[in-house]
Amino acid sequence: MHALGRLLAVGSEWGGYATLVPTGGARKAARAAADEASEQLRRQGVRQASRELKPVVIGENMKKRVEPYARMIGAETIDDWLARRKWTLELNAVWVQEMKKQGRRVIDIGPDFARRAKGVAPSTAYGLERRLLKGYLNYERRFLRWRKLRGGNPEIDRHEPWHYILDEF
Amino acid sequence: MEDKDSIDIFFEEYTASLNFLVTDGSYEPPLIDRRSTWGSIIYKVSDLDIALELSLDARDFVVSTYIILFSEASKPEVGYVSLGKVVCLFLEEVLERLIAKFPSVQEDLKQWRVSVERYHKRVRRSLKMLKMPEAEVVRELFRTDADWVAHFLRQYREEIIRYARNYWGL
Fold this sequence. Notes:
The complex is a heterodimer.
Chain A: H1 3-10, H2 24-52, E1 56-58, H3 62-73, H4 78-82, H5 89-101, E2 106-108, H6 113-117, H7 124-132, E3 139-141, E4 144-146, E5 150-152, H8 160-168
Parallel strand pairs in A: 1-2, 2-3
Antiparallel strand pairs in A: 4-5
Helix pairs in contact in A: 1-2, 5-7
Chain B: H1 6-23, E1 31-34, E2 38-44, E3 50-57, E4 62-69, H2 70-73, E5 81-82, E6 85-86, E7 88-90, H3 91-97, H4 104-128, H5 135-168
Antiparallel strand pairs in B: 1-2, 2-3, 3-4, 4-7, 5-6
Helix pairs in contact in B: 1-5, 3-5, 4-5
């Protein structure tokens, strides 16, 4: 078997055990192939993990929205991960990175528009989560937004904002 | 906020300000619950399926005050809505309904927002710098808000309950 083919078959994880030592351009090509094989294995692992691990829910208002929604769909929240530890912004960021590393599906139920309509400022912690999840492939948005203070998730939010949305059309 | 937990401060301040609800016998002793990211205090009205709920979102130091349909809204899987029915009303929106009858409520609501916002600004400033706010600021924030909630309940408790009874047909 060709050296490159042999390395591809083994995969980069085990590439170090290969007895063949390519030189020059062949070494470069072998490294590239090994990296690609490794990335494929990693993606496969992440996909496998995300199938086995429960999705997590993010959004504003942990007690009235995030937790009830997570219970409703059989998902988890940051509280499950914290397991009674004291919450901090740092731990919140670590949690997001950990969920990404595990390849978890992250379901975003969005801002608490009812609360924002009462003058409550946007959540800093939720904003941080959104920033950290930018470009994450397993991110799933489950809310609608209509202008600044209207929208939500129809399964969990109060109906009034939806009436307003319909009024607009 | 190194050694003092905001949820503990929340419990201390609100139960101290609202203790009169229990001592005069019109409400049952508070039901207290907590997770890492939130804390809640529920005062159920004696012999009625209505309660006052104070809920702290510890990630934002935001306390929301609700009037709830107790049998539904106190379930952990229930938020604002249960089986298509709203089971959780903001105290503020109930008070807004009383303005026609009690015009002074409007000015009180305005003052409530202004005095709480003063402390909230300081809290948000800290969080934006990725720092936890000082315990004393958090305590002042909760104390100010709790005093306003106590004020409204002292003045308009009966009207609030009447509105909630009509809303849920109790």
